[in-house]
Amino acid sequence: MLDKIELRLRATAPGEPARLLSRRLSWRAEHGMSRSAPLLELVARLADRLRGDGVAVTNPSGSSFFSELDVYDLFVAEGIPFELDVPRQIELSDWFADDGPGRRPLLSLGTHPVFEAEFRKSCLWLLGDHRFGADVGGFPIHPNLLARALSVPGVAAALTAEVDALTASLGAAPLGEVQRIMYRLGTLRSPAGYAAFKPFLERIAALDAPAALARTLRCGLPEELVWPPYEQASAALDAGTMRTDQEWPLLAIHDAGTAVVLGPSGVVARHELAVPARDGIDGQFPPRCTLHDGRLLVSWQQGGGERGYWADTPGVEFDADLGGLVLGPMTRLPVSEDIVPGGRFEPVPGAGPVRLRWRRDLWPDAPAVFGAADGVTGWDVIDTAGAADGVTGWNVVDIAGGAVVRSVDGRQVPLPPTVRTATIMGVLALPGGGDRLVTVDQFGAVTVWDPATGTPAYGPAKPEGLPPAGWWDLLRPRDPAGSAALRAGGPVTAVTDPVLADAVGRQAAIAATLAATVEQYRALRHEPARPPVPVTADDVTIADALSGLTHASRFTEHRRESRTSTVPEYKLMGFLDALPAALDGERPRPSAGVAGWTRVLAGLGAVALRAAMPTTRPPEREVLAALLTALADAGLADGSAGLSVLTVVTDDQLTAERTAGLGMRAVVAEGVSGGFGLSCRRLIVHGPVFDRPGLRVVERIPLAGWGTAGTVRRFVDLLAERGPVTWRPEWAASFPNLPVEQATVLLTGATYCAAADDVTVPPSYLEVTGLSAAAARTASDAIAALPKGRLLHLLNAAMPLDPAALWESGPDTARLASAWREPSPPPYEFQPWLE
C-alpha cells in the first residue's frame, strides 16, 4: 500500500506532496489522532522529494494543541521544510501513553528553535503531570517514572538543559524566583533525581536562602505602601469571609455582616447587611455585595435562586439572579479591565518603538506612586533598538537589547520576556528609592520584579491590607524610615510599622522553608540508593493482585485484564516510601492510588498466601512481594513502630494543619464513604489516639494480624529463594467445611473469583489445580459470594505463622477451619443517614 501511495505522490506536480501532507496533518490535529507508523514511514520515503520541492509543510491546527512530536522530529532530522507557529502546549503525557509503533527519540525536535523552549518546559512539567502518573504539587517523582522519562534521549537532553538553566541563576536570584525554581524542581528532590542531575542539584545544595531574602527586601515589598481608608475599613471586617467587588472608581468590600464602599476620597458608604436567616444548603453560602452603576446590591442564595435588595432601599426584596461565579477574591467573573481598571489602552500611530500605551487621569491629591505628568498616570512598553544579546542565565536580558516599561514621568525598568503586557500595573516608585515593575494577574496576585535579574522578587501573592490594583495610585509610604533601611540592606529591626514588620516576617518564613528544603538536598548527598521497585508494581497491577481483599469478597470491580492507560502510576508505593517522613512533619502525598488498600493491613497473611500460590500470575506475585516489603519498611506490618490505622469522622476536612492542631502525628491514607458535611477518613497515626472535639474514632484496623515485620520479610526472602509452592490436591481435601472444588479455589488465593461474566479462568490455573473450567467457575462464584471482608479473614488464617511451613506442609487448614466457624470482623462503612 505504501509503495503505491509513494509512487502516486512522486508523480504529482512540484509542491503537491507537501500540500497533501499539510491537509493530512491538519485533519489529524482536528481529530486528535494517535501516532501513525505508516505516516512516518511515508514521510521518510518522501524526504528527498519534500526537500527538493522546497515547499513548506503547514499545519494551521497544530500549534494550539501540538501532538505530532514524531512527525516533526522526523521533519527536523531529514531537513524537510515546514511552517508552524511556536506551540502553546506540547502534549508529552499523551505521547508517552501512546505505545504504538513509530516512536522516535525526539532529539532533533528538542533542539529546533520552534520547539526548543516549550519542549524543555514541557519535559519538566511532565514530571509533575498526573497524566504521566505523577503526584501533582511538586512531590518527588517516583524513580520508575523518572527512568521512563529519561529513557527517551530527547526528553533526557531537554531535562538536562532545563535543569541546568534554572539552577544556573539561583545564586543571584531573589526570593520569589528561588521559590518558583525550587517548586519546579521539586519533582527531582529524591535520591533518583539527585543521581540523574547531581551537578545541577548541587547548586541548590549550595544555595544561600538568607541572601535571597536580602535581595527581595532590597527590591521591595508592596506592604511598604498603604491606603489608610482601605486598611481601616478592611481591618474592621472578618478577614476569613471578606470579599471584594470593583466598579471603578468605586470599590466595595464586605463580610457576612457589613459592607463598605470606598472611592478616591475614602469611605463613601457603610451598610449593615439585612440578610434573612437561611437553613440547609442555602445557609452555607455567604451573602455577596456587588456594585451596579454606583449602587450596592446585597444578594443571597435562597430556595434555589438569588434574592436581594438595594442597599439604599433595604426593605424592598426582589429576585436578583446575577448568574455570576465566585472567583478568587471577586464576586463576579473578572475581565481584563480589572487588572488596572479605569484606564485606556491607546494605539500609538507613528510612535516608533512604542508597542503599547496605557493612560488614566490621576485622582486629585493622589501620591502618584506610579508617576504622573500633566495630571495623567500610565506607562508605555517600548522596544529598544538592538538585539537581545545580553542573556546570562534564566530570563536575564540586557536592557539595551530588550524592551522597557516607561512611566509617564520618564522612569523606566526592563520588561522581562516572560511578562504578559496585559498584566502590567506600572513602574512603582517605592519609598527609600527604587523603581520596580509591578504586575497583577486576574485573581489579584501581585508580582514585584527585580530589575537586576528580570525575575520575580516578590510573589505572585496577594499583599496583606492593600486594595486591588486599580486603587494603588492612592497608596502612600507606610514606614519611610523602614523602607529606606530595606533599600540599603540594613537590619530589619529598623522597620517599626507592625504591618510591614509582619510582611517582612512572612518573607523570612518563606526563606526559612527554602533553607529547610536546601538541607534536604544536602542530605541527598549521603542518602543511599533505595532498592528498585519492580516496574510492574504500579497501582493497576497492585489493585488487580489484591482483588477481593480490599473492599469485599464479591469482586464488584472485576479484574482488569487490560489497562485503560499505558502510563503506569506508582502512587501507593510512593506513599508508603514517603510515609515515615510524612509522619515526621513533611508534606504527605495527596493519594495512595489503590482504593481500599488499608483493609489488607488486618490480614497480611492473605497477601502472602496469594503471593506464594503457583496459580498467581508472575507479575502479580512480584508485586505482592514488593508490597509486603514496602508495608514492613513503613512500619505497617505490626504495631511495633507505634503506628495505628483508624477510621475517623470529623466535622471538617483533615488537612495536615488540622491534624497538627488536634495534637496528632497523622497522615490521611484514604477516604471512606461518608455523608454530606462530614469528613470520613482512614488515618495512619503515630502515637496514642483518642476522641477529641471535632474528631470521633469509629474503627481501629488491627495490625499484626499475621506475624511481625520480621515474619513478613522472612516470607519475602523465602519466596525469592524457593519460588511459589507446589500445589497439592490433598490440601483442599483435608478442609472439611467446603467441597473440594471450593476449597481449592479458596486455598489458591481466590485469584479468579468474580461476579462479572467476562473474567475467564486461564488454562494455566486449570492445569495446576486439576479443575475443569466449569467446576472452577462454579466454585469461584460460590467463594465470591462470601460476605464482605470474609475472604481476607479466611486467607489470613490459612497462612501458617511460620512462613517456611507453607512450603513444607501447605496452608494451615486447622486455623482456617477455626476461622470458618468464627464470624469475621465486619469492615466499617459509614452511613450517617442511617444513624
Principal-axis shape: globular
Provide a count of the helices.
30
Number of strands: 25
CA distance, first residue to last residue: 69 Å
- Helix-and-strand structural type: alpha+beta
Radius of gyration: 33 Å
- How large is the share of residues in beta strands? 15-25%
Describe the structure.
α10 packs parallel to α13 (198-205) and α20 (604-612) packs across α28. The chain is an alpha+beta fold and 835 residues long. Residues 323-337, 385-400, 552-565 and 828-835 have low confidence and may be disordered. The strands form seven sheets. A five-stranded antiparallel sheet has the order 12-13-14-15-16, with no helix packed on it. Strands 4-5-6-7 form a four-stranded antiparallel sheet, with helices on one face. It is globular and about 100 Å long. β17 and β18 form a beta hairpin. 35% of the residues lie in helices and 16% in strands. It contains 30 helices and 25 strands.
Structural key phrases:
single chain; 835 residues; alpha+beta; five-stranded antiparallel β-sheet; four-stranded antiparallel β-sheet; 25 strands; globular; disordered C terminus
